[in-house]
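Worked example 2:
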Amino acid sequence: MHYYDDPHPYSGGMGGDRWQNSAAIAALELGGTERGVTLVHRGTDIHRHVKYWIKPDIENRIKAGEVTAFFNSQGRGH
């Protein structure tokens, strides 16, 4: 899916080829769930195209441990 609109269908997991706005928004919305959120990104940091008003929020959630993020990584089976 190219655009993210509702967190509920993704509570079991979701993936994408680019860690940008949709991934950051989904992580922010799903971060408060009891299952938690883990982001896996091949790059070294949050993508440069993440909107300037979203980036600080996702960075703070990662620092606070509300969202787990693995950079320079790949998902299972790769």
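The chain has a mean pLDDT of 75. The two ends are 20 Å apart (CA to CA).
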